[in-house]
Amino acid sequence: MLFWIDHPSYRREEQLMHILYDCGMATFEQLQVITGWTPRNLKEQIQRLQRRGRCGGKIRGKSGGKTGDEYANAQVETTKDADLWIVTHHLARPYRKSRVVYALGRQGLLYVNEMRQLENKKIKDPPFGQALHFVGTNEVLVRCLQALGRENVSWLSTQHVTDLLLLAMQDPMNDKNSDRKDRRHLIRPDARLTVGTSHYYIEFDNDTEMPRQLERKFHRYVQTLQEIKDSTTPVLWITTNQKRRDYLRRNWESIKRKYYAGKPIPIPEMHFFVQGEELRLFTS
To answer: Mind listing the pLDDT tens digit for each residue in 53-104?
Structure first.
């Protein structure tokens, strides 16, 4: 995701659109750390997108000279959505940091799809009900950038990681039935973090998933990583409190004993942290 910053092919507000596309939702403070821009510069880019939405601003030359309304109306159902390039959401009061998160609106999502040559991809708004999950996942990246330095960190969003896993699972004989089966059992990590030359799958747990959901996710990690023959990349589970961290660890140990003990299959290495503790893994 960081490679979009200062990308020579895109203007600043377009770089911001790529970042938001990959983040799903992000706070101003997170965007500032991720981009490395000054608060003033970041605010300018956000305001540019807001003005573009209000006036149905023209998309630059690569879009064939369409206006924002013309570009959106073919695929967007409501006038409200068609007018939005960037959306501002307000978090509930208990959230201790910024109470505002940003996400791309429908036009912004459509435009990023076009820039990435994904014109046929279905547009799906980031669900506001998962705002704290997006924010918590992004905080992992922010902490790593602040503690380890931008030059030592690489980050792939859940969409990029899923694409890589699908590519690794692709049947060389192009068996479509096999491909559908692979997709059904595929794990979709929240992100993949690279520190130096070491890779980690990231799972941010907001203490909302039920035991059956967790068990299914544990099994999918085993199945997916076995399928792609990846027995060396650890999975980092990062959650909000110590009680939840210990609960996740106990569940994983129980799953291993019940389903995989004594079986000749590789079991992924999993680590469990309260948010912030994961930095010890990289700095020790």
So the answer is: 666 554 444 444 444 444 334 343 443 543 479 999 888 765 556 688 999 9
Which CATH number goes with the domain that contains 37? 1.10.10.10
Pairwise CA distance, residues 47 & 43, whole Å: 6
Q: Cα separations (Å) of 77 from 54, 69, 84?
A: 18, 12, 12
- Asked if residue 132 is part of any domain, the answer here is no
> Which stretches of the chain are assigned E, i.e. beta strand?
26-27, 86-90, 100-104, 153-157, 191-195, 198-205, 235-239, 270-274
Strand partners, 9: none
CA distance 186 to 215: 14
Question: What tens digit of pLDDT does each residue of 180-201 get?
Answer: 545 667 899 999 999 999 999 9
- Which residue in the block uniquely carries the two structure tokens 């307000």? 90
Tell me if 265 is assigned to some domain. Answer: yes
Query: What domain range includes position 232?
Result: 137-283
Distance CA 20, CA 91 (A): 17
Strand order in the sheet with 198-205: 153-157, 191-195, 198-205, 235-239, 270-274
Question: Does 178 share its domain with 278?
Answer: yes
Q: Could you tell me which residues are beta bridge partners of residue 102?
A: 26, 88
Least Cα distance to 128 among 109, 105, 108 occurs for: 105
Tell me whether residue 202 is exposed, middle or buried, using C-beta atoms within 10 angstroms of its C-beta: 0 to 12, 13 to 18, 19 or more: buried
Give Cα 93 to chain centroid, integer Å. 24
Cα separation, 108 vs 22, whole angstroms: 12
